[in-house]
Design goal:
seven-stranded mixed sheet, Aromatic amino acid aminotransferase, Aspartate Aminotransferase, domain 1, transferase, binds pyridoxal-5'-phosphate, 37% helix, Aspartate Aminotransferase, domain 2
Length: 358
């Protein structure tokens, strides 16, 4: 980089840069990836054969948008075709939201800590993040409603919340939505919704139906186990959905990704057996860790949050030494993905030995 290189937009100055790094030497021993909230199980056999079949056609472009998948989602969710939006992961749809719905100087309200992409999307658009601290580990919906000003154009709500795993529930969410002015877009991020199938859990698709300012985002990356293929989707009312589609990268969902997602939708019974296994493991893990004295709030997701404050980095380092890679939020806590039973057993064993740092 030289001083003469053209200057990027000033709005990017405040966004953390991904610095390209040389490929790392292969990790020695077995590593347990518990830091990205991935599904620990490989894709289903039917998804793998759809992937192989589609791979043979990768000399051809996919559709500008994944029409077959959009159609399948519209049927599955019982929404009109033109309400469905797609992208390369739901983060791809966030970029569309930033481009289509946010202007420089707009205020965007969201809880913090919440999904790490929120400040990036907002700042990339030149908009202003308005971060409302969680109350305990959960969204403070009253404070969020109070933070809405005439300059607010969007509110981002992650239900259940990443990284704390907490859910506010349908009743509180409805009360909140009723307080948001109709001109403000509410993005309801339900990346983990499939892990929250309990009575009282909200269904964003029901909530959006009679609220033109509400849109829902979901993903094939978590419960559906296709994080590596990058497929996200959402539902929004046509004015918003059409604007988002205008900003979508053409052919942004590849053919392999589309076919795998279609196969996964057809195999939901099998997938939900896995989801049940993961949620059962989540409860086993939470119970074991609480018995060791760790603070573990109830989680409605495929991960646990340990609010360890200043101790979180030391505990993360201790776990890493044993091959357990978790997500450290220095000074706040650890987010630990529920892994396979073997990873979880190891985690419980290693954390037992780390109780001195607890
Ligand atoms: C709350 C939330 N939203 C969206 C995403 C992004 O998912 P995708 O893989 O669909 O881009 C994640 C991923 O961790 C997430 O935690």
């Amino acid at each position: 980089m030289t001083a003469a290189a053209p200057a990027p937009r000033a709005a990017l100055d405040d966004i953390p840069a991904y610095v390209p790094k040389p490929p790392q030497p292969p990790a020695v021993g077995e590593f347990h990836r518990l830091f990205l909230n991935e599904n620990p199980y490989p894709p289903l056999p039917s998804a793998l054969s759809a992937i192989a079949e589609a791979a043979a056609q990768t000399n051809r472009y996919p559709g500008i948008l994944p029409d077959r998948l959009v159609d399948a989602l519209a049927r599955r969710l019982d929404v009109p075709l033109d309400h469905v939006v797609t992208g390369p992961g739901s983060v791809g749809i966030y970029q569309q939201i930033g481009q289509a719905m946010l202007s420089p100087g707009d205020e965007v309200v969201y809880a913090w800590p919440s999904f790490e992409a929120f400040p990036i999307v907002v700042k990339m658009a030149g908009a202003v993040p308005v971060e409302v601290p969680l109350r305990g580990e959960a969204h403070d919906l009253d404070a969020m409603a109070a933070a809405i000003t005439p300059r607010t154009t969007a509110v981002l709500v992650c239900e259940p919340n990443n990284p704390t795993g907490t859910a506010v529930g349908a009743a509180a969410l409805k009360r909140f939505l009723d307080r948001v002015p109709e001109r403000v877009l509410v993005v309801l991020d339900e990346a983990y919704v499939e892990f929250h199938r309990t009575p009282g859990a909200p269904d964003g698709v029901d909530l959006y139906r009679d609220r033109p300012n509400v849109m829902v985002l979901r993903t094939f990356s978590k419960a559906y186990g296709l994080a590596g293929l990058r497929v996200g989707y959402g539902v929004a009312h046509p004015r918003v959905a059409q604007a988002l589609r205008k900003c979508a990268v053409p052919c942004g969902v590849g053919r392999v990704a589309e076919e795998a997602a279609l196969a996964a939708l057809l195999a939901e019974d099998e997938l939900f057996e896995r989801v049940d296994r993961i949620t059962a493991e989540r409860e086993r893990l939470a119970t074991a860790l609480r018995a060791q004295g760790w603070p573990v709030p109830a989680s409605a997701t495929n991960f646990l949050w340990l609010p360890l404050g200043a101790r979180s980095s030391a505990v993360a380092a201790g776990l890493e030494q044993r091959g357990l890679l978790v997500r450290d939020f220095p000074g706040a806590g650890l987010r630990i993905t529920v892994g396979t039973p073997d990873s979880n057993d190891l985690l419980v064993g290693v954390l037992e030995g780390l109780t001195a740092v607890r």
